[in-house]
Amino acid sequence: MGLVVQKYGGSSVADAEGIKRVAKRIVEAKKNGNQVVVVVSAMGDTTDELIDLAEQVSPMPAGREFDMLLTAGERISMALLAMAIKNLGHEAQSFTGSQAGVITDSVHNKARIIDVTPGRIRTALDEGNIAIVAGFQGVSQDKKDITTLGRGGSDTTAVALAAALDAEVCEIYTDVDGVFTADPRVVKKARKIDWISFEDMLELASSGSKVLLHRCVEYARRYNIPIHVRSSFSGLQGTWVSSEPIGDKKVEQAIISGVAHDTSEAKITVVGVPDKPGEAAAIFRTIADAEVNIDMVVQNVSAASTGLTDISFTLPKTEGRKAIDALEKNRPGIGFESLRYDDQIGKISLVGAGMKTNPGVTAAFFEALSNAGVNIELISTSEIRISVVTRADDVPEAVRAVHTAFGLDSDSDEAVVYGGTGR
Amino acid sequence: MGLVVQKYGGSSVADAEGIKRVAKRIVEAKKNGNQVVVVVSAMGDTTDELIDLAEQVSPMPAGREFDMLLTAGERISMALLAMAIKNLGHEAQSFTGSQAGVITDSVHNKARIIDVTPGRIRTALDEGNIAIVAGFQGVSQDKKDITTLGRGGSDTTAVALAAALDAEVCEIYTDVDGVFTADPRVVKKARKIDWISFEDMLELASSGSKVLLHRCVEYARRYNIPIHVRSSFSGLQGTWVSSEPIGDKKVEQAIISGVAHDTSEAKITVVGVPDKPGEAAAIFRTIADAEVNIDMVVQNVSAASTGLTDISFTLPKTEGRKAIDALEKNRPGIGFESLRYDDQIGKISLVGAGMKTNPGVTAAFFEALSNAGVNIELISTSEIRISVVTRADDVPEAVRAVHTAFGLDSDSDEAVVYGGTGR
Q1: Which residues of chain A does B147 touch, with a Cβ-Cβ cutoff of 8 Å?
Q2: What is the largest CA-CA distance in chain B?
Q3: Mutate to test the interface with A, among B22, B76, B77 (most CBs of A within 10 A)
Q4: What is the mean pLDDT of residues A132-146?
Q5: Pairs of CB atoms within 8 A across A/B
Q6: What CATH number is associated with residue A420?
Q7: Closest of A28, A68, A77 to residue A50, by C-alpha
Q8: Is the ipTM of this complex over 0.90?
Q9: Which of A175, A200, A224 marks a domain boundary?
């Protein structure tokens, strides 16, 4: 008998009808001879409503209490889902993160899972139950306080449980059919990806693809748990994310997996930095001490005449204020002329392990952007990704141009192949 | 430093404004030099909304999952309350029933508290926190499942915590000013009672007074925890419930504490029962096996000509169907002619320890009813209570008549006193 972990997001259980629909799908998996563990998010807008309430009561809700509040959402959805399953004549028991053995550190609102001890889940399964587990939450190891895992935490819960229970697959049910070669809202001709490697999925996730979060994919890769991303509204096969294609499927690794974009970042340029050792370190130490996460970094070539240079980096818009404040505060120590802040930027990334062995990918990427009249402001690359920063307004057109250029459009015959090695 | 347990009901924390108002009151108690433990119910209609959701998903929600669902309500209110207190500059931590050490049996939806181990609460208090505890919920001793305590469970949580923490007082905040000599919606001249003994309060509670539930008062009496019932909307003194009047208050025990009424019961008459030993036992064994709680029982004098008698008893209307079914099913074994079911009855009860030593109370009670033209159908008495069953329609008039006759009206000079002993 196989063990399957299924995760349903808030849009799949938005109301009583949704819960009943999901219950039927779960029972089907059970009838197919599987042991079934289900991770569920809060219903529809519940979390947002709770956040609203908190803000009415306090402008700065405290971490511990905020987590206590938010976890009520999953408690509601998981209990209702268990009832709906029982109503279909099958046994089900719901478990909080704490009861399910999801042990985390003590960082409220964005805790990390440090251990999973699913003894009660195992017992429930052995007794013939379907186990329903609250996503997004755990209990801290030291203080035994309720914690939440932050955005996308339910996916991470599902993968972590799948790993701890040695599941065959972790199915992530959502309101889209899977992972696409680009955001279908931007690129009408985007194609569903049948299979993608963990590595490519990680790059897509960190480049703006929102279907799976980086942390969840990273966890799955570490424990080699295949993820199947699929729609809870259709019965279709979705996207498999795993180290190798699953079963007898002959899916070849595409050269290019997809095009991701991200308009949630801003760019800060530190102008007039003395071009001497230790300056960049001083800047990024300041940023790190302010607990701001940065993405891309570029240092201009120094102008020989002045001995000064500019350093630019990108970061989430939401952390812009914090970074500016920290830099201004340390301006005397660092020594720079001025700061420029630009939140009208966008990032376009091309991801695919195939670019390691296919030369010309970078050139083709830049050509596609150039043909579309898109100006490039920053460039950053990894082994299997190229990213550029452009004006935010240019992003949709740029994504479509690149998607077409690399043969990813759904009416293309085949993905474009490049000969030789290297790029 | 004193330790105070405060309990706030759902109407006191119905919205963000209510939560902030309650937070201020709590902080005041803390500023007055007390250690403060707060037990809170779910906000306003939350519990009813959750029940609605459950019924949409399943016609017969299962006990364990139903409890998991309902406890989300207190989780929300307690977290918000803790945030609101922190926003006023005081430290607060919220605790679920389980975290607070409220250990219960495993009877879901109406569990009983079997132990309270408030170690975490004590620690939180010692660290200077205000402790906020979810009412109405606990964790089962054997299975470690979440349980709920049934109607009025938050009051019981508060009293149980007060007992375990050896509190000076358990303050029950509600939307009325205290316990009244009769229901003010029926008797405009009802008076707030300043002090009432546990015994009289127990009788009032079991006779239809809804301010405090029997179970909560019983718990307080067993551990001798004074209860102060008061309004969360005013700063007024409410009603003290304790073994003796508190402090330097010279409050004498009134002869009559109040008049309670109850229209939630029905009457079943078992007609044509053979008047021989074992018949009544057979009837009430049947009722008990069906887990139906009964209240008053009357057996008519047997008609000598037939050797048959009638037995009547009262029970909650909600259990009428169950009792009828059980009796009909066992009719061959019991042997009776027919059943009569009457749900248009009401019960009026006069409560007061003074009636033990004041003769004439019973007579005056019946005279008042007679003068009001109210017909008595059943009578039952305890040492400190007389109850009668009448037509439901007669209840308001009967309550007012009795209230006036015993000098309880707010414009009376003094309660009526009867000489001699016995009644």
Answers
A1: none
A2: 81
A3: B76
A4: 95
A5: 113
A6: 3.30.2130.10
A7: A68
A8: no
A9: A175
